[in-house]
Amino acid sequence: MSGSLKLPGMQYKQYTFAFAQGDRIVFNYKELKNKAINKIEVFEMPSKLKFSRFKPTSISNEIITVPQTGIYVFKFTNTSLSKRVAELSIQRMPKDVSTIYFNTTPQKRIVSDTTFTTRIEKRLVKTIYETKPIIDKQQFYINSGSNAMFKGGKSRIVIPISLPVNTVEWYYTFSASRSEAEINKISSNMQLASELSQLIDQSGLLSFGIDQLTQPPGADYCDVYLIDHANYSKFINKEGFSHYPIGTRENILSGTVKVKANLPNSYLGIKNPDSMNGIHFAIEVVAIVKENIYETVEVKVPHITTQEMLFIED
Prior knowledge:
Elements: E1 2-7, E2 11-19, E3 24-31, E4 39-44, E5 48-54, E6 58-65, E7 70-78, E8 84-93, E9 107-142, H1 145-150, E10 156-161, E11 167-177, H2 180-189, H3 192-203, E12 222-228, H4 232-236, E13 244-252, E14 254-259, E15 266-271, E16 279-311
Antiparallel strand pairs: 1-8, 2-7, 3-6, 3-8, 4-5, 4-7, 9-16, 10-15, 11-14, 11-16, 12-13, 12-15
C-alpha cells in the first residue's frame, strides 16, 4: 500500500496485512512537516515484535523478512496533542513467482470460547407432611347458663389455637357429656394425632377424607365456634360476635372437624347451650405441617465469549 497517513493527536492507527513465507517487506514513512511521531511498531501476530522505532520523523526502505507465512500489524502511535500527516508505503516483494498472487488481505471470523464456573443451588427433592399436636387431649367443665349466672363458673370457654408455621390444615376432635367418667373414657380413646400420622405415612399426601378419622361418641350438646382475636372478648362477654363457618359446629354432641386454613391468632370458643346442666368437654387438636426437603447440588454455568480473529485464506 502507498498513501497518506493522517493521525489525530492522542490516537493510534494500525494496518494489518498477510505475507507469505520468504516475502520481504519494504517499509517507508515520512512525516510531511518533519514532526516526530511517538512510536512505530510492527508485530507478527499474535504479539511478536519485528520492528520498533521511537519518535521517528522518517523511515527509509526498512526491510523486514518474513520467515513464515503470517499476519503482520503496523501500528502508529501519536501521543502528541497535534495531528501527524505522513506519506506511508508498505510494499511486498515475493520470494519467487509461486507467491506472486498471494492474498495479502486477512480474513475475519468470529471465534467463540466457552468457560464454566460452578454455583451451588438448592433444589426441592420432595415435600413431606408431618403432624404437630396443638392440644393433647384436654378436658374442661363448662357450667350451665343459670349456674354461671347465679352460682359462678363459666358457660363459655375459649381455647387458643397456636398453629406452627407452614400449617396447611388442622383438625380437632371433641365430645361433650354431663358424665365426667364418660368423658374421661372418650378422651383416653382419642387418637387423632396417631390416625393422621398413619394416613399421611400411607399416602404421602393429604388425599384422605374426614370419614377415615374416628368420630368420638358424645352424649350432650355443645357449640364450638372458630373465632379470631377481635371476637374473643365479645364471645366471653356474651355479646354479638362473628365466627368462621369453616371451623364452627353448633348444637352437636361430638365430631371431628377439618379446617383447611392457617388463621393467625384464632381460638375455639366452646359454649354450653344447656341453661340447666353443666357439661364435661374433651378436645384434641392436631396440625398438619408441610416441610420441603432440599438438596444442594453443584451446577456448571457456561460463559460464552466471542472475539474477532484474523486468518489467512488458503
